[in-house]
Design brief:
Layout: E1 2-7, E2 11-20, E3 23-33, E4 38-42, H1 49-57, H2 60-67, E5 74-81, E6 85-88, H3 100-107, H4 109-124, H5 130-146, H6 151-161, H7 178-191, E7 196-200, H8 208-219, E8 225-228, H9 232-238, E9 241-244, H10 249-253, E10 264-265, H11 272-276, E11 279-281, H12 285-324, H13 332-366, E12 395-402, E13 406-413, E14 418-423, H14 429-437, E15 444-449, E16 455-458, H15 471-479, H16 481-486, H17 509-521, E17 527-531, H18 539-550, E18 555-559, H19 563-568, E19 572-576
GO molecular function: ATP binding; ATP hydrolysis activity
Domain ABC transporter: 11-272, 358-587
Organism: Agromyces cerinus subsp. cerinus
């Protein structure tokens, strides 16, 4: 690893490159984030958003060793960052037996150390010296930036704002839902008051109120903030700029003579972002999507025009070359005149050949590359043995309770049910899906399941037991060779061809989630359960999935916080409330 790190109040990345033996993640990346600015990272799964955050945080080497499955990364470049820079990763660092109070107090360890240094520096002022004054000034500055005098008040405010204040500090981590653990992780990070914030998908487990609270916190943050997110509403409200890590962007920005897209700006003065396949955009996310679509159309038009010009030049050059080298003998009547004009004609023809060859070579060398095919979800394949709508209920829950996690009076799932389950973290959304899937036993009540029913759950947290196996191998192992041949993995549009043979442990969280989705839909179940399905998916793939679920050949039950999905939902909805029984009449 050849990345060097220096410290500043600003966050700067210069000439940053990361590659493996089988692929390049990004190359010669550069940008700057000043105090008070908030840069949102966007791009397809696997574009390098999490890698970039880990590099900036200084945690890449440790995380990469676990994920690269033997493929060593080559890195280079320079990172300048504030001394206290902290990362909220997608993978949470908590042990199952840790208490929430212990987690939060550990987050304050550095703040407590800054407070002790301030006290020691103040005591040292008794010795009237320039060194003591400098020490005290530095300690006071650090204490003010870490807000050491309001740690307890900030703790309670953060827990309440993120919706977990009522859970208590004595709860063990393994007693919390996945969403609650994520909220405590976010609270712990904000409580530590770092000089710079790095956030990886911070809104994945936040409801509307908690997301709005986080947006307000980030807008008031004094240091630089960099975050990766697929949440369009959050990007629009929280980001002051967007960095697109789409590897295809380099070709689009290299269009000869193409007009600059409105709002496209390079933070690095040497314009290295545009040359490196990334670009900083100064507008909102909705506007960015429009600009990017127009940019791709310009790229595609120029590519088509250049390919047509190359075909024309190749044909013209071949015809001209044949005219020069026809090898036909000079006729008797032209022999006398040839000495006077033959050399001139040959020179003119030869010049035309050279000019044609020069234009051809120049265009072949400078032509824009073909736009990479976007990864497009191909929809739900055939092969589900769906029950007829008139054939009766598939699942029925009556007076169901899972102590401390779920209370539900009744719920019925018919063959073509479309149900969206909402509610705050801890209300029991994931628990309900696990009950429907048969993975969670109920403490009271009854669950009736139709005979021969196949139910599949796409979980929030994907784990593969064999990280060295490739997606193609896992796909064949799960479905069987016959079904894998009938519905090839590549036909689903969820895993790029270049990633099908890579170790699954080397894939991003989003790529692993897409593989888990492929394993389910390749053999569509009668009841498809999805827990936060748009988490870790790019906006394009999330939209494709939402549209495909509308035509799914069986029942669909989704638990989600996604504001975009909820606004567009056309089926029934069920809102759960923690500790309160919910009846079928609550469906709307």
């Amino acid at each position: 690893m050849a990345v060097s790190v220096t410290h500043s109040h600003h966050l700067r990345v210069n000439g940053l490159s990361v590659s493996y033996s089988d692929r390049r993640v990004f190359s010669d990346l550069g940008f700057a984030v000043a105090p008070g600015q908030r840069l949102g990272l966007i791009g397809e799964n696997g574009a390098g958003k999490s890698t970039l955050l880990r590099l900036i945080a200084g945690e890449f080497e440790r995380a990469d060793a676990a994920a690269s499955a033997g493929s060593e990364a080559t890195t280079s470049g320079r990172i300048t960052r504030p001394r206290r820079t902290a990362l909220l990763a997608q993978e949470l660092p908590f042990g199952p037996e840790e208490r929430i109070g212990e987690v939060l107090e550990a987050a304050l360890a550095e703040v407590r150390a800054i407070e002790r240094e301030l006290d020691a520096a103040a005591a040292a002022l008794a010795v009237d010296s320039d060194a003591a004054a400098v020490r005290y000034s530095a300690a006071l500055d650090a204490a003010e930036r870490a807000d050491v005098w309001s740690a307890e008040a900030r703790r309670d405010e953060l827990l309440d704002g993120l919706g977990v204040g009522a859970l208590g500090l004595d709860r063990r981590v393994d007693e919390l839902s996945g969403g609650q653990r994520s909220r405590f992780a976010l609270a712990a990070l904000l409580l530590s008051a770092p000089d710079a914030l790095l956030l990886d998908e911070p809104t994945n487990h936040l409801d509307d109120a908690a997301a709005a609270f986080l947006e307000d916190r980030l807008r008031a943050w004094r240091g630089p903030v960099v975050f990766a997110s697929h949440d369009r509403a959050f990007l629009d409200r929280a980001a002051t700029g967007l960095l697109d890590l789409d590897p295809g962007r380099a070709g689009a920005l290299a269009l000869a003579g193409a007009p600059a897209a409105p709002g496209m700006q390079d933070a690095a003065p040497d314009r290295s972002l545009a040359a490196a396949g990334g670009a900083v955009f100064g507008g909102g996310f909705s506007e960015f999507l429009r600009v990017k679509a127009e940019e791709r159309q310009r790229w595609l038009r120029q590519y088509d025009d250049e390919q047509e010009e190359l075909r024309r030049l190749r044909v013209g050059f071949a015809e001209t070359a044949r005219a020069v080298s026809h090898n036909a003998p000079i006729s008797d009547r032209n022999k006398m005149a040839f000495g006077r004009r033959g050399d001139r004609v040959e020179q003119q023809v030869s010049r035309r050949v050279r000019n044609a060859l020069l234009r051809l070579e120049t265009l072949e060398r400078e032509q824009v590359p073909k736009p990479p095919a976007p990864l497009v979800f191909a929809g739900i394949p055939s092969g589900s043995h769906a029950f007829d709508e008139e054939s009766g209920l598939l699942l029925q829950l009556s007076e169901v309770a899972v102590d401390g996690r779920l209370l539900l009076e009744t719920l019925q799932v018919a063959p073509l049910t479309r149900l969206l389950v909402t509610g705050a973290n801890g209300a029991g959304k994931s628990t309900l899906l696990n009950v429907l899937a048969g993975a969670q036993r109920v403490d009271r009540g009854t669950v009736h399941r139709r005979k021969g029913l196949r139910v599949q759950l796409l979980e929030q947290d994907v784990r593969f037991a064999d990280p060295a196996a490739s997606p193609r191998r896992l796909y064949e192992r799960t479905l069987g060779e016959r079904r894998a041949e009938q519905v090839p993995l590549g036909s689903l549009g969820l895993i790029a061809p270049r990633d099908e043979s890579r170790p699954v442990g080397a894939l991003s969280v989003g790529q692993q989630r897409r593989l888990a989705l492929a394993l389910v839909i390749a053999r569509p179940p009668h009841v498809f359960l999805l827990d936060e399905p748009t988490n870790h998916l790019s906006l394009g793939l999330a939209t494709d999935l939402e549209e495909a679920l509308g035509a799914y050949p069986g029942a669909v039950v989704i638990a989600s916080h996604d504001r975009w999905l909820r606004r567009r939902w056309a089926g029934e909805s069920l809102e759960l409330a923690a500790g309160s029984p919910v009846a079928a009449g609550a469906l709307r």
